[in-house]
Amino acid sequence: MNKKDDKWLDELISHTINTEKPQFDAEKWKQKYPDEFKTLLSRAAKAPAHPIRWTSFLKNPIAKVAAAAVIILVIGFFMTRPAPDKKVEIVEMTNATKSPAEMLTLKSLTIAYHNGGIEAVEKQCDKAIEKLGLKSERITVQELLTYIDGV
Amino acid sequence: MAKNNYKIYIRTTCVFLAVILSSSSVLGFPPDNAAVLYLRAFIIYEKPSSDFNKMLSDLRDGKIKPNDQIRQYFEKNRPVIELVTTASQIPDCDWGRDHSKGFDLMMPELATVRQLAFMLVADSKIYLNDGDYKTSLERCLTIHRMARHIGDDLIISNLVGIAMNGLANKHIKIILSEMPADVETLEWLKNQMLEISAKTPSLISAILNEAEISAREIRKERIDEILKDHSQEEILKQIPKEIIEKIRNGDEKYFAQSRKYYMDFIASVQAAFSLPYEVAQRELNKLNEKITKEAGTNPAAFATSIMSPSIAKLCTNETLSKTNFNAMNAAICIYVVKAETGQLPDELPVGLPKDLYSGKDFEYEKTDDGFILHCQGKDLDKDKIHEYKFKVKK
Fold this sequence. Notes:
The complex is a heterodimer. Among the domains of chain A are: 54-83; 85-151, no CATH class. Chain A has helices at residues 3-17, 26-32, 34-46, 54-57, 61-80, 86-96, 100-103, 106-132, 141-149. The termini of chain A are far apart. Chain A is extended. The longest helix of chain A is centred in the C-terminal third of the chain and has 27 residues, at 106-132. Mean pLDDT of chain A is 60; it is low at 1-24, 44-52 and 77-84. Chain A is an all-alpha fold. By secondary structure, chain B is mainly α. Chain B has four domains: 1-25; 34-201, no CATH class; 207-309, no CATH class; 321-391. Chain B has a three-stranded antiparallel sheet with strand order 1-2-3. Chain B is globular. Chain A binds chain B through residues 8, 90, 100-101, 104-107, 109-111, 113-115, 117-118, 121-122, 125-126, 128-129, 132-136, and chain B through 42-47, 102-108, 110-112, 114-115, 154-156, 159-160, 162-163, 213, 230-231, 309-310, 313, 317.
């Protein structure tokens, strides 16, 4: 995704959840949560005095081979994974914020078609049904009589 | 005096007949509008839980056989299927779509009708499993009829209808591959399918209906919304800023020109749709290129470039759907020959429906387990020659 897309998505998300970018103020946090701050300090004190030295670890030839294998596997994993379809992603992001009725307007379905063809239209219909949660409400005569009685 | 009595007699008879006729139309079933029954079916339809839905999906895909839980569910929903079947046989269906809402027009029925179609496929599988092939086929024909009711209006509803036809044809093909030779059922199916395929909704009517909505949307009050539309970003990026400004500040004369440009485009599309597939594709692609090019220089072309979907692709979708129907109808005729003579014909019988990509007969090939119908023309959107494989029960 390019910067423009990022910006558009940021706008969409901020419209949806109506929040500003969170900023962490460490000093304020320290003052507000003194107990948690102490716990954090005590955990830091328990940390090993001599952290693992990677340079000496990698002097071992077996470790070198293992590290290389891990790197190759990680690169391979990311290369073989298909990149997510940007258009479908956008449609799904937009749908997350819409009501089923909005998802089933001519405009919304036409946009889905432009982005992903008939499959996207069908997917949008399924999503709307999922959100609608159609369930028959059967009414008994007894319930009806109760309503008539005005209870 | 006698004359007066005669008049009273006639008047009384007329009033009596009027009362009888009006009361029979009030109490009559089924109603004239299929949508009424579909809506009743939606109301009483019991939506399966997500786990059970997965089970139904596996049944549709042939991964599992119908079990007691599935049978019970369909027994409970029997009235839904009866209502839908009756509705599908009513000629007219008016969903009450409010075209005056423009692109905000709501079409919730598209989603629910699809759900009912999936239900019908699963029910069809139960009958197939029980060896009741005719009822199994009838369920698929109901889907075809529903597709006609859903797809006879706008482009999107037409596409959903096409997808439902595809679903029904896929399952009819499976039933044909499993059913024993039965001339009577096959002849019945052939006639039903011919009737259904003759009434499939027309895409060009849907395009014209939607064009009316689009033309009404080309006005000053809507322009800011169109220019802000993220889904049109790709097109907007290609248009110079000064043209965008002209569009934004356009007066009534500008919008009248834009509407005329759009309607001229639609008239050209309509003309192209009457041409053979390959020529139509060439014409529609040329039209598309022309609009894309002119949108960068001519402000009046802007609305058309935004509102015209990929018409060449839509035309291919319709050709594919109609060719699917033709292949299915041709295959049923071949199954009839097999049922009558005990063997598949060596050559394609004369006068069968054609491959609409080329306008020629399908190429027929006998295989070890059935036969294949090959198209002779290419699907120019997918760059592919379609073929249809049919299996025959030994």
